[in-house]
Inverse folding.
């Protein structure tokens, strides 16, 4: 279970260090083999490879004749890249994916249970601002009556 938000630096080669608290879990789950891809909201998704495979199967089972489905296939599967943690616990982010998510020097790695989202720091700040400004009436219907 991946949780928490971490501010990370991206070096000149496009590498980022995976926080130590997640490295062991990633090594156990998938030997450090990951899949990174684009998300429609403008961030990147990072999955242990074993967790990504059933998702990719579901996406590819959608009809390629449906415009929305094929657009999702192009984005999620078309941008998907296999990556591995190096011996220093770093990931190399491709130029293509860095450009897609507009990730430059600083990024936020946000645990989402089974995977991570990787956001450019400025884009993440906007996401959080928007989330905290939403009215209760804009909550999903599934959360009606839910309290913390």
């Amino acid at each position: 279970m991946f949780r928490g938000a971490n501010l990370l630096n991206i070096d000149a080669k496009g590498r980022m260090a995976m926080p130590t608290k997640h490295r062991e879990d990633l090594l156990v789950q998938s030997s450090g083999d990951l899949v990174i891809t684009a998300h429609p909201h403008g961030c990147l998704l990072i999955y242990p490879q074993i967790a990504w495979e059933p998702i990719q199967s579901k996406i590819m089972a959608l009809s390629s004749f449906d415009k929305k489905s094929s657009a999702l296939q192009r984005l999620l599967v078309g941008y998907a890249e296999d990556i591995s943690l190096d011996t220093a616990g770093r990931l190399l982010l491709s130029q293509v994916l860095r450009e897609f998510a507009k990730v430059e020097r600083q990024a936020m790695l946000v645990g989402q249970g089974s995977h991570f989202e990787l956001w450019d720091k400025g884009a993440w700040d906007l996401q959080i601002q928007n989330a905290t400004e939403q009215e209760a009436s804009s909550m999903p219907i599934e959360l009606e009556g839910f309290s913390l």
Summary: Residues 139 and 146 are 10 Å apart (CA to CA). The helical segments are 20-30, 49-60, 67-76, 95-101, 121-133. The beta strands are 5-9, 15-17, 33-38, 44-48, 81-84, 90-92, 106-111, 116-120.
